[in-house]
Specification:
Chain lengths: 178, 102
């Protein structure tokens, strides 16, 4: 499958098959996440594979946005001290978030190639997530990506809003279609 | 369902409400209504698991919520109409249960 095929095939999935994801595949996804760029090559990004069923169950309880039955998840988070030391406040407050997004995108695209599907998840309690996973105070959790095998009979994906497809050319407001 | 299982479900439900409450501080305002509708579905889920309880109307309501709640991400208006529809159906059911013609 080409990278472009995977990108255009990706949709958020919230219904999964009741089967675990092989650890080797989760490791591949985590490596894909860490292959994404970081500002100034600063090593502030942390990636955690979560596949213990009891831990997933606990996360679901503190994450109102974890609406699916995905059996695994990958958390992308930032060591804020490393980010600030390496890249200043820009690194801590801006670049690291962008880089976490890039990492999550890599996961979601690589997942397609592996026959998996994903759902980005931000609707969770930061305090709760850190407590469940023993994440220290100097870290900020950025995004949880649910991972699983998509259920074949899953409901249709969400329609993109028209403004979600805006592409400009050379100047703000000048559409590529003009 | 044993008392212990019920206790666990209620505990989980409380945690859901608390984390949803925290979400309401920072999240898009329509996520509050989404969490409340989801809470309704979760309560019905617990009720369904209580031994011997089977409420056809509530079962249908839960199925409807679980199928359609995601439209909140497509259209605020459609989601609002969806909640109104859930309310309308529930009021009809309330009247039916009170012996009043719907
Ligand atoms: C930063 C971010 C946070 C998100 N958080 C959640 C979430 O907590 N729960 C959820 O079900 N979906 C979540 N989503 C998924 C979006 O709802 C989804 O991407 C959007 O509806 C577009 O659908 P698509 O991914 O199929 O194109 C999140 C997406 C992003 C980018």
């Amino acid at each position: 499958m080409s990278a472009l095929d995977a990108i255009f095939k990706r949709v958020t999935v919230r219904h999964y098959e009741d089967k675990p994801v092989e650890f080797s595949k989760l490791v591949t996804l985590a490596r894909a996440a860490q292959k994404a760029p970081t500002g100034g090559n600063t090593p502030y990004r942390r990636v955690m594979i979560i596949d213990d069923p009891d831990t997933i169950a606990m996360i679901k309880k503190i994450a109102p946005g974890y609406l699916s039955n995905a059996p695994a998840a990958i958390l992308i988070y930032t060591d804020l001290e490393v980010a600030e030391k390496g890249l200043g406040r820009l690194g801590r407050d801006v670049c690291s978030l962008i880089d976490s997004g890039a990492a999550a995108a890599n996961i979601s695209i690589a997942a397609i190639e592996l026959g998996l599907a994903t759902c980005f998840t931000k609707s969770y309690s930061e305090v709760g997530m850190k407590k469940v996973l023993d994440i220290p105070d100097n870290c900020r959790t950025d995004l949880l990506v649910q991972v699983g095998y998509p259920h074949p009979g899953r409901p249709r994906s969400i329609k993109k809003k028209p403004e979600g497809n805006i592409i400009y050319h050379n100047r703000h407001g000048v559409s590529i279609n003009d | 369902m044993t008392d212990k299982e019920l206790n666990r479900e209620i505990f989980d439900y409380i945690l859901f409400l608390l984390t949803a409450a925290r979400g309401c501080v920072d999240e898009p305002h329509m996520y509050g209504p989404l969490r409340l509708v989801d809470a309704a579905s979760r309560i019905i889920g617990t009720y369904q698991r209580v031994k011997g309880v089977d409420d056809e109307f509530l079962n249908r309501l839960k199925q409807l919520i679980d199928e359609k709640k995601y439209i909140v991400m497509e259209s605020e208006d459609e989601f609002t109409r969806f909640i109104d529809e859930l309310i309308a159906q529930s009021v009809d059911e309330m009247k039916r249960r009170s012996g009043v013609k719907a």
